[in-house]
TrEMBL record, chains A, B:
Keyword Metal-binding (UniProt): no
Record keywords: Nucleus, Signal
Region of interest called Disordered, as start-end residue ranges on this chain: 307-328
Protein name: Nucleosome assembly protein 1-like 4a
Length: 328, 328
């Protein structure tokens, strides 16, 4: 291993032109160490900076809240927005929408208008639709989760109080339903915003270090995170066969609230999902509902463009503006 | 083009399961528009948030300044750090450094100790070394730039005053030299932190929108951003030949201060470089000098590991800790 390390040292130094600081004159090396000590001081100031940014996020959470409350009321149907509140000029996209598509839409609208179910309450399946649009969440979503998530009415983020250890909590608010009795399911993400004493230079701001779910009080027989399997057992001596039932874990989004026993995802993915809820989905939910926020998700779009290319499209890809088609 | 757009619409909707919002019942569509209006309000609050973060950065710039001043003094040799200020425990890396490497270093050190040039002033070529280590800067660096950059003594970032349009200025401080008379070369990056009225949802925080360099007062014949070429011209009538000299632009890092006439890089690269100076190089210069900050630069390291793999190394790559060899 020592020889190996030595080889690596040499290779890296040669190939990357990284200076061998130990080859510097002693007096210069000393000064470099002095700069490294200053750099550690810097890292601690940076940690304070991020604490203040967290404070600022708390403050702004309060400023966003009236908007999010209004969103929840519109989604649930508790409030009907006024005409003025619904005015939306979709810049030129009506014109760009091809005629046949428009006609089709008009037809469908007409059909729907004549149906009694034409005016459902609020925006049905708002959050479930978002789950389906976002790859990272879609992967966790199972068919048996969908009827439950239709009852999801809001997702909120709450920041830890000043002076408390840094954390944020995701709150999933459900309307009364036949699956569980909780009104809110929570997941707390604990964060750390201080340089690691052993490796202070790796500090890049707050990091999620731990998370904690919550107990879901499932109604009898409704827990989708387990399934009951039947197992036949043969008595060794007598040769008689009996059937026992056994509960085994099953894939479900709701394992998200029980991270210890998660089946589908590692802790790293879990942290990534928590971060994504906090930074993207909660602040801009409607854009994930309409698909506008998915523009960046290149894996989706490049897949589409690939198909067209193979069919012999000749125009330059640079001319295509996918926003045209997925904006509403 | 209309047909093409229609095709794209359909394809994207089918493949990505993005809802055709225009196919939603009218009443629901209205509510979605209401949410989109709320989303625009959100974007404007977010813009204010980023302005406050900018304020916070200004405040912290003041807190970092004494550390950066000390760094400048150590680098230039104006101040010799005390023994206490130079104490540095490099966790176990001495032990891990293979014996032969250590001996080699010891030999070199001895050689250097006997030489009179053994104690140069400060940390020679501190900033030039950083330029050489960072790919993005190394690409701009020409041989004729190197002797000039040996005179670079500090790089600072200054944030715009509150109430002023958001911007930051990079200041390159030079010791008196034979190339130009400026003591400081500057580059201002102008930023915008407000949602675009035409596309408010694309807002993701402050963006660099413009930059401005400075005039370098080159001493006669020292301007490395131009070269003189000789050109022979033949008189069309008389057939006589004359030689004229002409100044033409030449690649140089110093074109960075004259972005209008830049040769090497697009505005996007220029913005990226400005951002990198501000966010990475200025706050953690010593780590770019020693190479520790380059750990993330995977293109460098994966290249090294690739080589070892090809030579038949069998151990799992996961066991390798490249930090061992490039820390000092």
């Amino acid at each position: 291993t020592e020889q190996r390390t030595a080889l690596l040292c040499l290779t890296i130094q040669m190939l990357c032109r990284i200076p061998n600081v130990s080859a510097l004159p002693k007096a210069v090396k000393r000064r470099v160490y002095a700069l490294k000590r200053l750099q550690v001081q810097s890292a601690h100031i940076e940690a304070k900076f991020y604490e203040e940014v967290h404070e600022l996020e708390r403050k702004y959470a309060g400023l966003y809240q009236p908007i999010f409350d209004k969103r929840r009321e519109v989604v649930s149907g508790a409030v009907e927005p006024t005409d003025e509140e619904c005015e939306w000029h979709s810049e030129g996209e009506e014109e760009e929408l091809a005629e046949d598509l428009k006609k089709k839409a008009a037809l469908e609208e007409k059909k729907e208008e004549s149906a009694p179910a034409d005016d459902p309450k609020g925006i049905p399946e708002f959050w479930l639709t978002i789950f389906k649009h976002v790859d990272m969440l879609g992967e966790m979503l199972q068919e048996h989760d969908e009827p439950i998530l239709k009852h999801l009415q809001d997702i909120k983020v709450k920041f830890s109080e000043p002076g408390q250890p840094m954390s944020f909590t995701l709150e999933f608010h459900f309307e009364p339903n036949s699956y569980f009795s909780n009104a809110v399911l929570t997941k707390v993400y604990k964060m750390k915003s201080e340089p690691d004493p052993v490796d202070p230079f790796s500090f890049e701001g707050p990091e999620i270090v731990d998370c904690e779910g919550c107990k879901i009080d499932w109604h009898k027989g409704k827990d989708v995170t387990v399934k009951t399997i039947k197992k036949k057992q043969k008595h060794k001596g007598r040769g008689t066969v009996r059937t026992i039932t056994k509960e085994v874990p099953q894939d479900s989004f709701f394992n998200f609230f029980n991270p210890d026993e998660d089946l589908d995802f590692t802790l790293a993915t879990d942290f990534e999902i928590g971060h994504f809820f906090r930074e993207r989905i909660i602040p801009r939910a409607v854009l994930y509902f309409t698909g506008e926020a998915l523009e960046d998700d290149e894996s989706n779009l490049s897949f589409v463009f690939q198909d067209l290319d193979e069919e012999g499209e000749e125009e330059d890809e640079g001319d295509l503006d996918p926003t045209v088609s997925i904006q509403t």
